[in-house]
Amino acid sequence: MHITRTVNAEIHYEDRGEGPALLLVHGHPFDHTMWQPQLDHFSRTHRVIAPDLRGYGATPLGAYPDSTDLGVFAEDLTDLLDDLGIHDCVLAGLSMGGQIAMELYRRHPERVRGLVLADTFPAAETDEGKAARNAMADRLIAGGAEAMRGYADEVLDRMVAPYNTHAAPHVHRMMCATDPAGAAAALRGRAERPDYRKTLTTVPFPALVVVGRDDSYTPVADAEDMHALLPHCALAVIEEAAHLPNLERPDAFNAVLETYLRSLVRPS
C-alpha cells in the first residue's frame, strides 16, 4: 500500500493502473480490500484508487477520536486527490462510502465527473437511527475487539446473503479487524449526517445506482428513490446479492460498472 500524509491525516491506499481516475470508497466496517475484485478488473483501463478511510484498515483515526463526520472523510479524500495530482474522478461508494461520496460531491462538485452509489441511501438519519448508532458506538468502545467480533457475527448474514458463502470469510475478517474506536467514531458522525436528496437533484452528469436484490439494509426501494432523484441515472439491481454485491457477485457488478464507465465521455 501507499501512504500520503496530509495536514489532517495519514491515509493508506491502493493506487493501481493508468487512465481516468476511479476512486472507490468502502463502507462500514470494512477497509479498501472490500474492492479487491474491482481493483483487479478496472486497473486494466483506469487508475484505481482505493483508500482505507480514517479509523479503518491501516489508516489511523487521528484527530477525531470521538466522532468522525462524513465531511472529515470527504476532505480526507479530496486531500488524497490533491496529493496524487488528480483534478477529477469517477467516485464510487458503497453504503457509508456512498454517503461519503454524496458529501464529497456536495462540497466539491468540480472534483467529480461520475458518481456511483451502491447499496446506500441519501436521507438524514431518523431519531431512532441516531439512537441505535450511538448505542452501538458505546457498545464497541466498551467491549473493544470482542464487541467488534460479536457485531460481525450478528450482521454477517445481512452484509452477505447466506447463500453467498464464498464472500463471507473475507467480509467477516474485515469487520473483526476494524478498530472499534474508528468504527464508533464513524457511527457517531454518520448519525448526524445531512439529507443529500436535494444534492442528488443537482448532479449534471450521468450517475449509476446499484443495489443487491436481497439487501435488507438499503433495499431496492431505496435505490429506486435515489434513481428518481438523479436527473441522468441508470439503475442496476444485482440478483443473488445482499449488501455487498461487488463481492458477492463481482462479475455482474463489474459488468454494470464497466458499461457505465464506457458511457462517460471526457470533454476534449
Automatic annotation (TrEMBL):
Provide the AB hydrolase-1 domain boundaries.
22-255
Keyword set for this entry?
Answer: Hydrolase
Q: Which GO terms describe its molecular function?
A: hydrolase activity
InterPro entries associated with the record: AB_hydrolase_1 (IPR000073), AB_hydrolase_fold (IPR029058), AB_hydrolase_sf (IPR050266)
One Pfam family hit: Abhydrolase_6
Record keywords: Aminoacyl-tRNA synthetase included?
no
From what superkingdom does this record's organism come?
Answer: Bacteria
Query: Under what name is this protein listed?
Result: Alpha/beta fold hydrolase
